[in-house]
Design a protein that fits this description.
71 residues, mainly beta, OB fold (Dihydrolipoamide Acetyltransferase, E2P), five-stranded antiparallel beta sheet
Length: 71
């Protein structure tokens, strides 16, 4: 699984971004393992998977993480 660092958290809206391999990866609180979204912090290392797909419903947005777990 790739690893990255949390660069932004928007707790009140339930999402954040992971910086990895020269790209920013979006993640939603629903993909954080064990519902641990509230325990995440900026600068924390996490591992994740990239979601498959990204078809027309994504409207050209960047990659999206799945299965986000603190390291």
């Amino acid at each position: 699984m790739p690893q990255g660092t949390i660069t932004k958290l928007v707790s009140d809206r339930g999402f954040g971004f992971i910086s990895a391999e020269r790209q920013e990866v979006f993640f939603h609180h629903s993909v954080v393992a064990d519902g641990a979204f509230d325990s995440l912090k900026i600068g924390q290392t996490v591992e994740y998977q990239i979601e498959d797909g990204g078809g027309s419903d994504r409207r050209g947005k960047g990659p999206r993480a799945a299965s986000v777990k603190p390291v």
